[in-house]
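Open question from group meeting: does this chain pack into something compact, or does most of it stay loose? Before anyone orders reagents, we agreed to write out a predicted structure and look at it together. Recording both the input and the output here so the notebook holds the full record.
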Amino acid sequence: MDNKLNDLMRSTMEKVREMVDTNTIVGQPINTPDGVTLIPISKVSFGFGGGGGDYGKTPKENFGGGAGAGVKIDPVAFLVIKDGITRVLPVAVPPASTVDRIVDMVPDVVDKVEKFFDKKEAKETL
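Structure tokens returned:
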């Protein structure tokens, strides 16, 4: 039984290794016509389980076994390379609630308010 179960587990792990390699986490570079290079970055999670049983008294008798694996790939960010400058462009998950949306909007609102006051001060100095 040990050899059958080991073979089952080994073949399942080989399939997981095929799915989860470095090219899955750091993807192949994508070159755009305007000279920008994009490199996708992902987060990979996986789980693995297996088991077996021996139903007979001798090795030639019954054996039952099973194995399974699951892989989840989430995009995290892109490395954006242009003119020798590298930036990280995160791939944000959409906000889940109204409060999340408001928190996400705060920086934009602050920028708009600052611009408004800057324009008002510029008019007053003229």
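Observations to bring back to the group:
Helices lie at 2-19, 22-25, 98-125.
Residues 2-93 form one domain.
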